[in-house]
């Protein structure tokens, strides 16, 4: 029996998530991973690397609870929000029996995580405006234990209608968890669902330090939920999910000074987003620029695959969304520095399509 044959069938057949770094490229303008464009510096203060870290570092938990307006008992910290996605499937879904559900076009890790654990995933395509098709979701809920909703949605950039989310939470009460993936919520904080946790025991909110906090390389995320959910996730999380340096930097980033710095970065990104949107709408090959509540924009571009390759060859790396349902001709552009925005604008203006 070969090594390949020894592996689980669902893993043999699995197509891994194509992260920005996995896709590669040799660019000098990286606008494909929704990262903050410049580095933030921190000094490591913890030198006890000879000891294992706390499973849930108190300073990180307390600081994040204060920031998010929840109790520390409602916070779980993990290796990015991606680990939170997986922990929920591990804790709540029986392989071969239960299912998860999500609404494409959306984040690709929901399906990959489900496949990895041998759990069925069901999809309900979003409506033309990329909002939830509530009736179609209701028709597919039998056997579903976890519903993932990304808001603001990646890659489309819009907030999911709050009233639709309330309807979804009512139809799933006592049946399934609803997981609001708020990776980009710092760019539209008024849209958070954290204040709803008291009303919905089955609501879960995912957060990250990768975007507005400019710490994608740290791999630090949070799951916010009621205490019963957190207690179950604690049973399946790794013994030491955060290294001591990660916890050290995360606690600093979540200090009052760190949060103020994050909000200044958000203001910078929002201003730059407006500049880029305004410029793109004047370029002939750009057919449509969609409204965004995030640190990226989605644009429909004439001959998008050729344009994507042309910019790639010039060292400008964007994210091709052509394979996503309803996103034919679309490219996603992370908001970078003014110089990076100008590189994109000039390159697109030069395209002859």
From TrEMBL:
UniProt key word Thylakoid: no
Presence of keyword Transcription: no
Keywords: Amino-acid biosynthesis, Aminotransferase, Histidine biosynthesis, Pyridoxal phosphate, Transferase
The reaction(s) this protein catalyses: L-histidinol phosphate + 2-oxoglutarate = 3-(imidazol-4-yl)-2-oxopropyl phosphate + L-glutamate
UniProt pathway: Amino-acid biosynthesis; L-histidine biosynthesis; L-histidine from 5-phospho-alpha-D-ribose 1-diphosphate: step 7/9
Cofactor needs: pyridoxal 5'-phosphate
Signal peptide: none
TM ranges: none
Modified residues annotated as N6-(pyridoxal phosphate)lysine in this record: 211
Superkingdom of the organism of origin: Bacteria
Enzymatic class: transferase
The EC number(s) this enzyme carries: 2.6.1.9
Every Aminotransferase class I/classII large domain range: 43-348
A Pfam family of this chain: Aminotran_1_2
Sample GO molecular function, one term: histidinol-phosphate transaminase activity
InterPro entries found in the cross-reference section: Aminotrans_II_pyridoxalP_BS (IPR001917), Aminotransferase_I/II_large (IPR004839), HisP_aminotrans (IPR005861), PyrdxlP-dep_Trfase (IPR015424), PyrdxlP-dep_Trfase_major (IPR015421), PyrdxlP-dep_Trfase_small (IPR015422)
Gene3D superfamilies per UniProt: Aspartate Aminotransferase, domain 1, Type I PLP-dependent aspartate aminotransferase-like (Major domain)
Protein family: Belongs to the class-II pyridoxal-phosphate-dependent aminotransferase family. Histidinol-phosphate aminotransferase subfamily.
Subunit comment: Homodimer.
Name of the molecule in the record: Histidinol-phosphate aminotransferase
Organism of derivation: Scandinavium lactucae
Gene encoding the protein: hisC
